[in-house]
């Protein structure tokens, strides 16, 4: 590929991993324009090494809001963008419960705006691609059995997932109505380096290292299907290369875990690299003893599980990282970078936690 790819939300967790993955692991010869509003969740510094190595010829960072039609339009024209990958979103379910407005603006209006910009600039071009990143949460909550298929009816239940569902419908509508070459991927829970410590795995990891209570919502029995972020990045790349316009692909790790199981697996990985007995912050207790049950998340979805059969069969993708392998890589990364990350995000994050219910 030698094109210019516009990556929105590329300063966030998955977007920054994706940009690094494309430059380092795919043989991509083109240019990436990273367009990001730098909300509390975006850090330009997540890609400072990439900026040094590839900018400004092959990597350009632009601070901007996907809701701004004029600005997005100007970027598409200036850089002759022919591929758009839309990661930009408000992503934290708890925040969407406490303040849904930004979720509606970015996740719905922003996605609509990007689709409109693509339609305005690409007319009937066939050498273009719009890939929209979505989530398994649009399908709602599963009972004890079954998995989400591409054909599972949408049943979003939080403001976050409802907004994501809405943008998926818009993306599909642009394919059917205007012939815009759109693909969509619905992925399960990602974990790995650069994830904001508001999410379960990095939150628990950093709190464990500091010997702080680890909040577990409800009974800890809610189930998520975990995927190492690099496996998600590879799936997106495969879809960009070989996915059929108009199609949706479910992406998951085939790695269902109840939250308590996830935490225990995380503590096992942590014990290998930073044994609790040698961690003075723990004052003699073990990581597991930090688990603290707190009030449940409102409307907390009980179980997600993805059937990735279609992307496996049609595009030959499957996850390469096992859970303990991915967790060890994640723990190693946070042990090396966690304190910097904590400092950078600490002010806004702690203020939010205090305002809401975790730090009382
Ligand atoms: P994140 O919160 O870490 O990053 C989001 C990025 O989007 C940030 O850099 C932020 O600054 C940027 N952004 C927010 N609003 C913007 C706007 N209006 N204009 C431009 N940029 C804006 O999110 P993430 O976890 O990396 O998720 C990325 C995408 O993947 C999202 O669309 C999310 O719904 C989807 N997804 C995430 C997961 C997961 O487990 N994290 C799983 C499936 C799908
Ligand atoms: O399924 C994909 C989704 O995964 C993405 O679309 C979202 O953007 C992403 O944030 C993630 O959503 P979750 O709500 O599943 O992730 P989170 O890390 O917030 O929570 C994972 C589980 O852990 C969930 O059951 C809630 C629980 N939890 C979370 C936090 C932050 C706790 O028990 N305690 C916590 O402190």
Structure description:
With 360 residues, this protein is an alpha/beta fold. The protein has a domain of 240 residues: NAD(P)-binding Rossmann-like Domain (Rossmann fold). It has eleven helices and twelve strands. A seven-stranded parallel β-sheet has the order 3-2-1-4-5-6-10, with helices on both faces. A three-stranded mixed β-sheet has the order 7-9-11. The chain has a two-stranded parallel ribbon with strand order 8-12. The chain is globular and about 65 Å long. The model has no long low-confidence stretch (mean pLDDT 94). The chain binds nicotinamide-adenine-dinucleotide and 2'deoxy-thymidine-5'-diphospho-alpha-D-glucose. Nicotinamide-adenine-dinucleotide binds next to helix 1, helix 5, strand 5 and strand 7.
